[in-house]
Amino acid sequence: MTAPSSHVARVRDLSVEITGQSPRQLAVDCVSFDVEAGETVCVVGESGSGKSMIAHAMIGLLPTHGVQHCGGQVFLGETEVTALPEEALRRLRGSAVGMIFQEPMTALNPVMSVGQQLDEVFRAHTSLRAADRRAKATELFADVQLQDPARAGSAYPFQLSGGQRQRVMIAMALALEPRLLIADEPTTALDVTTQAQILALIRQLQRRRGIGVLFITHDFGVVADIADKVLVMQRGRCVEAGSAASLLDSPSHPYTQKLIAAVPVLRSSAPDQAPTAQPSPLLQVNRLSKRFQGRGGRVTTALDDVSLCIDAGETVGVVGESGSGKSTLGKMIVGLLQPDSGAIAFDGLSMVGLSRKQLGAARQQIQMVFQDPYASLNPRHRVGDIIAAGPMGIGMERDVAYARAEQLVQTVGLPASCLGRFPHQFSGGQRQRLSIARALAMQPRLLVADEAVSALDVSVQAQVLTLLRQIRQEFGLSMLFITHDLRVASTLCDRIVVMRSGRIVEQGPAWSICGSPQEAYTRELIAAIPGQAPRKASDRPAVLPSSTQGMS
Hints:
Elements: E1 7-18, E2 25-36, E3 40-44, H1 51-58, E4 67-76, E5 79-80, H2 86-92, E6 97-100, H3 104-107, H4 114-125, H5 130-143, H6 149-152, H7 162-173, E7 180-184, H8 192-209, E8 212-217, H9 220-226, E9 229-234, E10 237-243, H10 244-249, H11 254-262, E11 281-293, E12 299-311, E13 315-319, H12 326-333, E14 341-346, E15 349-350, H13 356-363, E16 366-369, H14 373-376, H15 383-393, H16 398-411, H17 428-440, E17 446-450, H18 458-475, E18 478-483, H19 486-492, E19 495-500, E20 503-509, H20 510-515, H21 520-527
Parallel strand pairs: 3-8, 3-9, 6-7, 7-8, 13-18, 13-19, 16-17, 17-18
Antiparallel strand pairs: 1-2, 1-4, 4-5, 9-10, 11-12, 11-14, 14-15, 19-20
Helix pairs in contact: 5-7, 7-8, 11-18, 15-16, 15-17, 16-17
């Protein structure tokens, strides 16, 4: 009698072609690997490396236009899926394989409650009665540790936090008890504590159910925490593969070495030389408070008695989880929100209660770089028009404004020829560079960067951080840098302010906050950073004997 296979998925020489290209281009080029029961295989690479294309090809969700499967085989268990008709594929999705998508807000239906969406899965794939479906949904919501699981299903996606929405996606992916779970960048835009919770949840469910996990990420810190085996993807090809331990300890390919080197490191030692210049306060925030009133009269305190200052030429990092009040603080400083109480002074000028004209003049000296450059750049305007619009709005001649735009795009590392293109024609990292160029066009003295690198690949993130350091020195800028990642803050900032639930927990020099945190919450943020320590054997799921066979 033949022993049952331990493989939950096998991929052999998978190739995906970008159609209509000459010469021929492959988004995925002859990639092979196995995923075994109880095992986590991480696929790592930058945007455009083919990671997500592999996942979509495995479950038959490739776009109908632009790409096509052109070679190789995919097996889920013993079933080859690459040649199956759509109806057979639909039956396999959910039962043989479940998928957690990168952005749950776009993957979930905004006009249906999350309970209705989970019920839809059961109605499509099972014969359970309504009462049994409700009971099963409650059980799943409890499994993924949603608060009050019996009532969780009545919430709509917009009423949940990012971490809660991701938990709902995990519940839906596991609803039909698949043997393989594909997680496509499920923690990229989450703060480090929520990310740690989601990673721990996936490991816990994996141990309990014995499922295989294919985890797609760009962060080797995450790989260090969860992976058993690793595939490193570059431009559609697997350039290196092997056990996580061997690959992390001694990567052989230059691209793998580059990705590992790009992971930000928590810097906790004092600088070699202390600053000698007398600090000159540029921005002073004094006892700032802000509350928002929601449905049913519910009041949320976004900021509670917040005070801080930024000196000329200084970079101050504001760090905390989602909902800590970081972005609200940034928006108040640039005048997009008004406080309920407290004072904001920029170079001695009060920023509270200004007229529209006065606020417009003040904003010339304070510019903001937003988290999502695609949302903050007008998709119908060309890049040159976007960058030149601000200076032209305050009376600069068109030719002068465009000459400045041309100079600035080169300053941020892009060619002058890009001025005639639209935002959608750029990568995420390039769009963020353009957002920085737009902010610099107004010749500000203070730059507010709100999670400006949080959604970027670690290698692109490192490039943008280097750019911000260079710009700070070249233009003599002060900066308020908002982030959820203490590693990133420690590499860029002179001082760090740690926030929680609208209040400042502690603040001080960056090296002191990261090296000798005084508050338990700061220590929790540091402990949640991925890749900080090797996993214990007890943290790893029990796996069947495996090797790197089949990985190329």
